[in-house]
Amino acid sequence: MSYPAELYHGDQGEVSGTLWKGDSPPDLVIGGRTNVHYLATGASTGGQYGLYRWDMGEQPGGPGPHFHKTMSESFFVLSGVVGLYDGDTWINAVPGDFLFVPPGGIHAFRNPEGPASMLLLFAPGAPRESYFEELAEVAASGRRLGEEEWADIYRRHDQYMV
């Protein structure tokens, strides 16, 4: 394996880092039970990756098993217990545990024992914010979507439920 093509062509480097403070308020609240922090979006990283802090509340929940065709997804547990599904087995992951899922890999997550926090990394960076925001809007409105409506949302956001 070799290094990828250069993305920066200068000789001196530049001051360009962005600091995100840990006590920043969430960028999005989904259904009053999940706070999402947009640490680095696909747009802000030039499509290289998207990184999000996912804080789940007391009420257990999470998406069902699914896969993505265009990106990998990685999970790093920060606090609490996060149920991670690797396509074969559910594992109760604890702080420091990490799961990498390549494109096409079936996976899911949930918070089986109350509050938990993790980092989600999508590579390459995709516009996941629009998916998260659509989920938040559906939850906030109280609308009940039919199977075809959910299928349309999932299709538009590279989410294939199994």
From TrEMBL:
Residue span(s) of domain Cupin type-2: 59-121
Pfam families referenced in this protein's UniProt entry, alphabetically: Cupin_2
Membrane-crossing segments per the record: none
Highest taxon, organism lineage: Bacteria
PANTHER family per UniProt: PUTATIVE (AFU_ORTHOLOGUE AFUA_8G07350)-RELATED (PTHR36440:SF1)
This protein's name: Cupin domain-containing protein
